[in-house]
Amino acid sequence: MSTTNAELLGGLAAALGNGGIRIVDLTHTLDPDFPVIILPPEFGQCARFRVEEVSRYDHRGPGWYWRNFSCGEHTGTHFDAPVHWVSGKDLPNATVDSIPAEAFVRPACVIDCSNEAAADEDFLMTPEVVQAWEATHGDIPDGAWVLMRTDWSRRTGGEYLNMREDGAHSPGPASETIEYLLEKRNIVGFGTETVGTDAGQAAHLSPPYPAHFLLHGAGKYGLQCLANLDQLPPTGAMLICPPLKIKHGSGSPLRVLAMVAGDGQ
Amino acid sequence: MTEPLKKPPRKDPQKRTVSPTLPPASRSRKALGFLVAAAEGRFALQQCDDCQTVCHPPREACPKCLSMDLVWRDMPTGGELIAETMIRTSTNTYFRERTPWRTGTVKLDAGVTVMAHIHGDVKQGARVRMIARTDKSGKGVMMALPEQETDKMADDRQLRELTCDPKHRRVLVTDCRTASGQALAKALSEAGASIVFAGISEAWRPYQGAASLTAVPNVEIVPLDLTDTTSVKELAGEIGGKVDILVNNAEYVRPGGALDRDDVVTARDEMEVNYFGPLRLMQAFGAAMRSRGADGVNSACAWVQISSVYALANWPVFGCTSASQAAAVSLGQSLRGELAGSGVKVVNVFSGPLEEDWRQPLPPPKVTPQVLARNIVGGLQQGLEEIVVGDVAKDFMRRFREDPRVVERELTGIEGI
Fold first, then answer.
1. Distance from C-alpha of A206 to C-alpha of B69, rounded to nearest angstrom
2. Distance, C-alpha B311 to centroid of its chain
3. What residues in B contact A164, CB-CB < 8 Å?
4. Among A34, A48, A74, A170, which would you mutate to test the B interface (most chain B Cβ atoms within 10 Å of its Cβ)?
5. pLDDT tens, N- to C-terminus, chain B (417 residues)
6. Number of H helices, E strands in chain B
7. Which of A48, B66, B119, B305 is the most exposed place for a label (fewest CB within 10 A)?
8. Is A78 a known active-site residue?
């Protein structure tokens, strides 16, 4: 006897209640001192996360505490919409407020590159790495997120952007990998632990910033500054990542959660 | 020779911090002309435009010909100490706490005889060099110094009441990611500051000069980002009670006026650093400094704000930046009023174009970080409230004092662009 959809949801609720399904938080705290991407100074820059207190049980508001915050659409753990990049500027439903909500709850495939990234800070994930992963875990299914685990989220301070005089040094995907994921597979988006979906030196790849250029040109989404990817299984996690519904938004900070099978009943 | 100041001992936690008391503060409106010159380190007296008589104390009309045309003119600073006394008691609280206090009568080369504070190294009947400075009340006073430099003369306790000497004081320099901040930290350390707190924002981004900055004696790196209220408050929570001199050198400079830009993003960034930055500093550090204006050898004494001289009259080439710095200058005026009576001076530094990245296309002469630092430390040692740095700024100021509206028209005319 097949399970009805209503029963499926009921089972999910039960599993969430008894630990059968756990929630993993993949989000960094929005902190004023969390790194943002650094562009050449003559370009416009990403706003840092900032907070100003409005009242705190005081003369400004005796019974309540609240604050104003400000940041960019690409500050902290954040979502990139296709319109973020020039290659996606004319696509339909390319802004965060117009993307169909179904895209925000999708399965995730986690490709562990943490050893490679530890050995080579400029590590580029090639199609061969993806194919080797698929040989073990099966093909990346339609409509899945591909998350590149590097353990980069454990880095703090200057080690995170890893800026030197020739720019940032951090791992990311090779152009061919993005092409593979778009042409041979039908992913919904690509996510990383680094400050962007592209490698630190991706300005020197062809095309420059291939993850941004190719993904968004194909109407796909990006997630970056993810954390805790080491707590996800290679397959089987369900990603929940709705960005704020900002009118014409190019992206948004967000809370990224994953449902994973737990030890409960 | 002056007895050298000893490094103050650590504060006795059982002793109440001494509240600032003040020397007499009442002056006539006319007399404020003396204060304005004193704040700039100039020794100016009233002179009658009709009969050329020099007069002091300040008057409404010439004591000789009754002309109303008395103008403030810089005067020769030489004189002779003709009488002196040591005050051993006073009904004025400020002096009562500071007796014995040396005072005397000086016959000035300028033609008048004046009452003045007397430096301890001046010999009886000797030739003296006069200075005009602002005192703890923020009012202009005269002091007679030895004609020639004497050993450790800056340590004279009466002179030190008029100056903001960094020696044995603890200084916060707000932005040491920059070459100017690093030069300031070094110069202040060399001037005897006991600690230089060197503010560094966004430690996750590397910056040039980090290694040499940490090698400067008495420098202590502290996290500080003027665009982040939390960061400013957290630092004040740690060191707010021991910042004696605050030097705000942070600036956000971008070329362009209103029509050169398509948005207010850059203008907001300018305001965040150039205007809200000092405002946040004031809210976090101001009250503690105000309460520590008489806190011994290392009392709080100076709030230093560095601005481009174009804060005073807008240069449209850097139009939006100039506007944001003008806002900061206005805010500094408010702060001066709020700190009045605390003994803490608001020191405005007006600089010509600095030798730094965003002013790279501008022609020389430009102000190097070292020259900026030397002028600021020198100005603090002298007790100035206005420090003008570089040829461009000096020329600007000379013309600005003649007629600010002419400067404004020149800068905003076709030839100014």
1. 77
2. 16
3. 206
4. A48
5. 799 999 999 989 999 999 999 999 999 999 999 999 999 999 999 999 999 999 999 999 999 999 999 999 999 999 999 999 999 999 999 999 999 999 999 999 999 999 999 999 999 999 999 999 999 999 999 999 999 999 999 999 999 999 999 999 999 999 999 999 999 999 999 999 999 999 999 999 999 999 999 999 999 999 999 999 999 999 999 999 999 999 999 999 999 999 999 999 999 999 999 999 999 999 999 999 999 999 999 999 999 999 999 999 999 999 999 999 999 999 999 999 999 999 999 999 999 999 999 999 999 999 999 999 999 999 999 999 999 999 999 999 999 999 999 999 999 998 765
6. 13, 15
7. B66
8. no
Instruction: Report which secondary-structure segment, H or E, holds B218.
Output: none
B234 in contact with A, Cβ within 8 Å? no
Angle between helices B369-382 and B179-190 (to 10 degrees): 40
Type and span of the H or E element at A193: none
Q: Which of B204, B223, B266 sits opposite A158 (nearest CB)?
A: B204
**The complex's ipTM?**
0.93
Record: contact B230-A41, CB cut-off 8 A = no
Which helix or strand (DSSP H or E) is residue B109 part of?
none
From chain B, pick out residues whose CB is under 8 angstroms from the CB of A45: 269
**Integer CA distances (angstroms), B184 to A230, A259, B196, B347, B353, in order:** 46, 54, 9, 15, 17
- CB-CB neighbours of B15 under 10 Å: 7
Residue length of chain A: 265
Q: What is the CA radius of gyration of chain B?
A: 22
Neighbours of B97 (CB within 10 A): 11
Residue B110: both structure tokens together? 């300028």
SS3 A39: coil
**Interface subset of A 157-186, CB within 8 angstroms of B:** 157-158, 160-161, 163-164
Of A1, A229, A246, A27, whose CA–CA distance to A108 is shortest?
A229
Mean pLDDT, consecutive 10-residue segments, chain A of 265 residues?
88 95 98 94 95 97 97 98 98 98 97 98 98 98 98 96 96 98 98 97 96 98 98 98 98 98 80
Cβ A26 vs Cβ A240: under 8 Å? no
Name the β-bridge partners of B248. Answer: B305
In this structure, are residues A130 and A252 in contact, taking their beta carbons and an 8 Å threshold?
Answer: no
**Predicted local confidence at residue B1, as pLDDT:** 79
> From the candidates A28, A84, A212, A216, which is the catalytic residue?
A84
On whether any CB of chain A is under 8 Å from the CB of B206, the answer is: yes
- Cis previous bond, B100, omega within 30: yes
Alpha-carbon dihedral A85, A90, A92, A94, rounded to 10 degrees: 20
CA distance B315 to A89: 38
Q: Is there a contact between B113 and B54 (Cβ–Cβ < 8 Å)? A: no
| Residues of chain A contacting residue B270, judged by C-beta atoms under 8 Å apart | none
Q: Tell the burial category of A126 from Cβ atoms under 10 Å away from its Cβ (0-12, 13-18, 19+).
A: middle
Q: What is the pLDDT, as a whole number, of residue B414? A: 85
